[in-house]
Amino acid sequence: MLHAHYDAARPFFSQSLEDGALLRILGCIGHGGRKFFEFGAQDAMEVNTRLLREEFGWSGHYLDGGEPNPGLNLHHAFFNASNIVGLMRAHGVSLTVDLLSVDCDFDDFYLLREILLAGYRPRLLIGEFNAGFMLNQAYSVRAPHSLDDPRWQGDCYTGVSALGLVRLASAFGYGLVHAQSPNLFFVHVGSAKARGLTLPEVSSLIPTVPKVAEKSTSSTRPSGSRCDECGATWTRIPPTSALRPLAMDRSLGPEDFAAALPAVTLAFRRVHKRFHLSSRHQQLEHTMVYREVPAPLLGAECSSWKRPVIAKPNPRTGRPDSARQSV
User: Fold this and answer.
1) Closest Cα partner for 166 from 138, 200, 207?
2) Which of 123, 77, 125 has its CA nearest to residue 101?
3) Are strands 74-76 and 59-64 parallel, antiparallel or unpaired?
4) Residue 5: how many CA atoms within 13 Å on its side-chain side?
């Protein structure tokens, strides 16, 4: 009954439909020792593990930078790639914890590398991804140098693309089994095969196109913003075969590992599905499409790049580009 009720079209406790996905996956691999570790948990109410905690006898620890709650094992902590392993050890997290959920809205890629490099092999791994990228784009934000460096500022400069996260997980032997935006679910390939389970094709699970945003990203940004249409610095994540030796090199600390990955400049364009005569296009749904550029665009080139792209032609002229003249 619980499974039927929670496997509905709407989330129960989780942000999206992670509740039902977790129960489906655990139905295949088993609940094991029912231990979890989840960070980026806010108040531990809208989290991936609350259903397991309240209805299925699971227990574990939460980390967040907000207020602690001893009753829920919610601990106050600021974490990054340099201290996350120490925090997990301090809370007695087993190397084979049943469920690890990673969500820090920014340097997820680098934290997860340190956790897996330290020998943690959760039976089920959940990682958040940036849904603003195409199926074939593997990028992450640049790694912050310290806890004092700025992190997510509520804009598009956040996290790691789905393909980038898949490549890192694959480097440590994990296979993707489910995608539920904004999270990817992985199990260890060896463990799955030992149970006689067949894993799905990765390309059939990763979202193919970027998510649709409700409002256009404004072309007016504070000085130094990292969500810049005309170019911001990101990390390009190489294919798994090239990433694996870097990710598994214990001589590379967090900063050295981050420095070993190529920095690139990404600019994005706002693509609107339909033509609109009104200059209120800033309030219309759009998709952000990223492209690598040699360097940040400047002056007239930047101004031209910022003009929105209209997918459906202007009915008066039949030309998509004519819509830009009304902006």
Assistant:
1) 138
2) 125
3) parallel
4) 6
Contact between 317 and 289 (Cβ < 8 Å): no
Tell me the whole-structure pTM to 2 decimals. Answer: 0.87
278: left (phi over 0), alpha (psi -120 to 50) or beta: beta
Structure tokens at 46: 């809208």
Tell me how far the alpha carbon of residue 265 is from its chain's centroid: 19
Residues with Cβ within 8 Å of residue 248, at least 6 apart in sequence: 117, 171, 172
Whether residue 43 contacts residue 74, with contact meaning beta carbons closer than 8 Å, is answered with yes
Distance from C-alpha of 244 to C-alpha of 248, rounded to nearest angstrom: 6
Domains and CATH numbers, the chain: 2-208 (3.40.50)
What's the first-to-final CA gap in the chain, in angstroms?
A: 54
CA angle 181, 186, 191 (to 5 degrees): 160
Least confidently predicted of 2-6, 21-25, 227-231: 2-6
d(CA 231, CA 243) in angstroms, rounded, equals 25
Model confidence pLDDT, tens digit, residues 52-110: 999 999 999 999 888 899 999 999 998 899 999 999 999 999 999 999 999 888 899 99
Instruction: Confirm if 80 and 147 have CB atoms less than 8 A apart.
Output: yes
Instruction: Name the E strands within the chain.
Output: 35-39, 59-64, 74-76, 99-102, 124-128, 139-141, 174-180, 183-188, 212-213, 232-236, 263-272, 286-293, 309-310
CA 3 → CA 52, 196, 213, 306, distances in Å?
Answer: 11, 23, 32, 48
